Amino acid sequence: MSPTLPDALAVMVDIFHEYASKDGNAHSLNKGEFKEMINAQFPHVFENSTDKEGIQKLMIDLDSDKSGEIDFSEYMTFLASLAVVCNEYLLESMKGFQDKNSRKH
Amino acid sequence: MSPTLPDALAVMVDIFHEYASKDGNAHSLNKGEFKEMINAQFPHVFENSTDKEGIQKLMIDLDSDKSGEIDFSEYMTFLASLAVVCNEYLLESMKGFQDKNSRKH
Protein backbone atom coordinates (compact mmCIF):
# COMPACT_ATOMS: atom_id res chain seq x y z
CA MET A 1 0.00 0.00 0.00
CA SER A 2 1.26 3.50 -0.80
CA PRO A 3 2.22 5.67 2.16
CA THR A 4 -0.59 7.97 3.34
CA LEU A 5 -0.57 11.53 4.70
CA PRO A 6 -0.76 10.25 8.31
CA ASP A 7 2.33 8.09 7.55
CA ALA A 8 4.19 11.14 6.23
CA LEU A 9 3.15 13.23 9.26
CA ALA A 10 4.34 10.47 11.61
CA VAL A 11 7.77 10.43 9.88
CA MET A 12 8.09 14.20 10.42
CA VAL A 13 7.10 13.98 14.11
CA ASP A 14 9.38 10.96 14.73
CA ILE A 15 12.42 12.53 13.06
CA PHE A 16 11.98 15.77 15.04
CA HIS A 17 11.94 13.76 18.30
CA GLU A 18 14.86 11.58 17.26
CA TYR A 19 17.09 14.68 17.05
CA ALA A 20 15.37 17.03 19.53
CA SER A 21 15.52 14.59 22.43
CA LYS A 22 19.30 14.10 22.27
CA ASP A 23 19.89 16.85 24.87
CA GLY A 24 17.04 15.68 27.12
CA ASN A 25 14.71 18.49 25.94
CA ALA A 26 12.36 17.00 23.33
CA HIS A 27 10.63 20.35 22.66
CA SER A 28 13.24 21.92 20.41
CA LEU A 29 16.34 21.38 18.29
CA ASN A 30 19.43 23.14 19.60
CA LYS A 31 22.19 24.24 17.19
CA GLY A 32 24.00 20.89 17.27
CA GLU A 33 20.83 18.84 16.91
CA PHE A 34 19.62 20.99 14.01
CA LYS A 35 22.96 20.62 12.15
CA GLU A 36 22.96 16.86 12.77
CA MET A 37 19.38 16.57 11.46
CA ILE A 38 20.07 18.64 8.31
CA ASN A 39 23.28 16.74 7.51
CA ALA A 40 21.63 13.35 7.98
CA GLN A 41 18.31 14.11 6.25
CA PHE A 42 19.49 16.44 3.47
CA PRO A 43 23.10 15.29 2.95
CA HIS A 44 23.53 17.00 -0.43
CA VAL A 45 22.22 20.42 0.54
CA PHE A 46 25.07 21.70 2.70
CA GLU A 47 28.09 19.80 1.47
CA ASN A 48 31.00 22.17 1.27
CA SER A 49 32.69 24.29 3.88
CA THR A 50 31.04 27.57 2.77
CA ASP A 51 27.70 25.98 3.51
CA LYS A 52 28.53 25.49 7.18
CA GLU A 53 27.62 29.15 7.45
CA GLY A 54 24.52 28.33 5.39
CA ILE A 55 23.16 26.00 8.09
CA GLN A 56 23.80 28.67 10.73
CA LYS A 57 22.00 31.31 8.63
CA LEU A 58 19.11 28.94 7.91
CA MET A 59 18.70 28.29 11.63
CA ILE A 60 18.60 32.03 12.41
CA ASP A 61 15.99 32.55 9.66
CA LEU A 62 13.79 29.70 10.91
CA ASP A 63 13.99 30.71 14.58
CA SER A 64 11.07 33.13 14.34
CA ASP A 65 10.66 33.61 18.12
CA LYS A 66 14.46 34.15 18.51
CA SER A 67 14.68 31.52 21.26
CA GLY A 68 18.01 30.24 19.89
CA GLU A 69 16.42 26.86 19.16
CA ILE A 70 14.04 25.45 16.53
CA ASP A 71 10.71 24.36 18.01
CA PHE A 72 8.31 21.97 16.31
CA SER A 73 6.23 24.65 14.69
CA GLU A 74 9.33 26.38 13.22
CA TYR A 75 10.52 22.96 11.96
CA MET A 76 7.15 22.40 10.25
CA THR A 77 7.31 25.87 8.63
CA PHE A 78 10.71 24.87 7.23
CA LEU A 79 9.37 21.56 5.85
CA ALA A 80 6.30 23.27 4.39
CA SER A 81 8.55 25.78 2.56
CA LEU A 82 10.68 22.93 1.22
CA ALA A 83 7.53 21.15 0.01
CA VAL A 84 6.35 24.31 -1.79
CA VAL A 85 9.71 24.52 -3.61
CA CYS A 86 9.56 20.79 -4.54
CA ASN A 87 6.01 21.29 -5.80
CA GLU A 88 6.92 24.30 -7.97
CA TYR A 89 9.83 22.35 -9.41
CA LEU A 90 7.51 19.43 -10.19
CA LEU A 91 4.91 21.73 -11.83
CA GLU A 92 7.64 23.35 -13.94
CA SER A 93 8.90 19.91 -15.03
CA MET A 94 5.36 18.86 -15.92
CA LYS A 95 4.87 22.08 -17.88
CA GLY A 96 8.13 21.51 -19.77
CA PHE A 97 7.04 17.96 -20.51
CA GLN A 98 3.62 19.09 -21.75
CA ASP A 99 5.11 21.91 -23.90
CA LYS A 100 7.53 19.42 -25.43
CA ASN A 101 4.71 16.99 -26.12
CA SER A 102 2.39 19.63 -27.59
CA ARG A 103 5.13 20.79 -29.95
CA LYS A 104 5.27 17.27 -31.34
CA HIS A 105 1.67 17.49 -32.63
CA MET B 1 15.91 1.87 5.85
CA SER B 2 13.59 4.23 7.73
CA PRO B 3 11.74 6.81 5.65
CA THR B 4 13.51 10.18 5.52
CA LEU B 5 12.17 13.75 5.46
CA PRO B 6 12.56 13.94 1.64
CA ASP B 7 10.46 10.72 1.44
CA ALA B 8 7.75 12.27 3.60
CA LEU B 9 7.80 15.50 1.54
CA ALA B 10 7.49 13.48 -1.68
CA VAL B 11 4.42 11.67 -0.28
CA MET B 12 2.78 15.05 0.48
CA VAL B 13 3.55 16.45 -2.99
CA ASP B 14 2.42 13.24 -4.75
CA ILE B 15 -0.87 12.99 -2.84
CA PHE B 16 -1.69 16.64 -3.57
CA HIS B 17 -1.17 16.02 -7.30
CA GLU B 18 -3.07 12.74 -7.27
CA TYR B 19 -6.22 14.61 -6.17
CA ALA B 20 -5.58 18.10 -7.57
CA SER B 21 -5.05 16.90 -11.14
CA LYS B 22 -8.42 15.13 -11.39
CA ASP B 23 -10.08 18.20 -12.93
CA GLY B 24 -7.16 18.95 -15.25
CA ASN B 25 -5.87 21.81 -13.04
CA ALA B 26 -3.00 20.43 -10.95
CA HIS B 27 -2.50 23.73 -9.08
CA SER B 28 -5.35 23.42 -6.59
CA LEU B 29 -7.93 21.13 -4.99
CA ASN B 30 -11.52 22.05 -5.81
CA LYS B 31 -14.32 21.23 -3.35
CA GLY B 32 -14.88 17.70 -4.69
CA GLU B 33 -11.17 16.89 -4.86
CA PHE B 34 -10.60 18.20 -1.32
CA LYS B 35 -13.47 16.06 0.08
CA GLU B 36 -12.21 13.00 -1.77
CA MET B 37 -8.68 13.54 -0.43
CA ILE B 38 -9.85 14.03 3.18
CA ASN B 39 -12.14 10.98 3.07
CA ALA B 40 -9.45 8.76 1.57
CA GLN B 41 -6.51 9.97 3.67
CA PHE B 42 -8.24 10.63 7.01
CA PRO B 43 -11.21 8.19 6.86
CA HIS B 44 -11.99 8.37 10.58
CA VAL B 45 -12.01 12.15 10.93
CA PHE B 46 -15.28 13.05 9.16
CA GLU B 47 -17.37 9.92 9.46
CA ASN B 48 -20.90 10.95 10.29
CA SER B 49 -23.39 13.14 8.47
CA THR B 50 -22.85 16.18 10.74
CA ASP B 51 -19.23 16.16 9.71
CA LYS B 52 -20.04 16.68 6.06
CA GLU B 53 -20.51 20.30 7.10
CA GLY B 54 -17.21 19.94 8.96
CA ILE B 55 -15.29 19.30 5.72
CA GLN B 56 -16.98 22.31 4.11
CA LYS B 57 -16.09 24.50 7.10
CA LEU B 58 -12.51 23.20 7.16
CA MET B 59 -12.13 24.05 3.48
CA ILE B 60 -13.38 27.62 4.02
CA ASP B 61 -10.96 28.04 6.96
CA LEU B 62 -7.99 26.75 4.93
CA ASP B 63 -8.75 28.81 1.83
CA SER B 64 -6.86 31.85 3.08
CA ASP B 65 -6.85 33.72 -0.29
CA LYS B 66 -10.62 33.02 -0.71
CA SER B 67 -10.09 31.58 -4.21
CA GLY B 68 -12.68 28.84 -3.56
CA GLU B 69 -9.97 26.18 -3.94
CA ILE B 70 -7.09 24.88 -1.81
CA ASP B 71 -3.69 25.59 -3.33
CA PHE B 72 -0.50 23.77 -2.40
CA SER B 73 0.61 26.29 0.18
CA GLU B 74 -2.81 26.20 1.93
CA TYR B 75 -2.64 22.38 1.87
CA MET B 76 0.81 22.47 3.50
CA THR B 77 -0.44 24.88 6.18
CA PHE B 78 -3.19 22.34 6.93
CA LEU B 79 -0.69 19.45 7.19
CA ALA B 80 1.67 21.52 9.34
CA SER B 81 -1.19 22.29 11.77
CA LEU B 82 -2.11 18.60 11.92
CA ALA B 83 1.53 17.72 12.64
CA VAL B 84 1.66 20.28 15.49
CA VAL B 85 -1.45 18.66 17.06
CA CYS B 86 0.05 15.15 16.66
CA ASN B 87 3.29 16.37 18.23
CA GLU B 88 1.53 17.94 21.24
CA TYR B 89 -0.44 14.72 21.74
CA LEU B 90 2.81 12.73 21.63
CA LEU B 91 4.55 15.05 24.11
CA GLU B 92 1.55 14.79 26.49
CA SER B 93 1.63 10.99 26.23
CA MET B 94 5.38 10.98 26.93
CA LYS B 95 4.82 13.26 29.93
CA GLY B 96 2.08 10.98 31.26
CA PHE B 97 4.38 8.00 30.83
CA GLN B 98 7.27 9.74 32.58
CA ASP B 99 5.04 10.91 35.47
CA LYS B 100 3.71 7.38 35.87
CA ASN B 101 7.24 5.99 35.87
CA SER B 102 8.59 8.56 38.33
CA ARG B 103 5.73 7.79 40.75
CA LYS B 104 6.92 4.16 40.79
CA HIS B 105 10.26 5.16 42.34
UniProtKB/TrEMBL annotation, chains A, B:
Tell me which InterPro entries the record gives: EF-hand-dom_pair (IPR011992), EF_Hand_1_Ca_BS (IPR018247), EF_hand_dom (IPR002048), S-100_dom (IPR034325), S100_Ca-bd_sub (IPR013787)
CDD domains associated with the record: S-100
Classify the source by domain of life: Eukaryota
Q: Name one GO molecular function term.
A: calcium-dependent protein binding
Q: Which residues form the EF-hand domain?
A: 50-85
Keywords in alphabetical order: Calcium, Metal-binding
Q: What is this protein called?
A: EF-hand domain-containing protein
Species assigned in the record: Erpetoichthys calabaricus
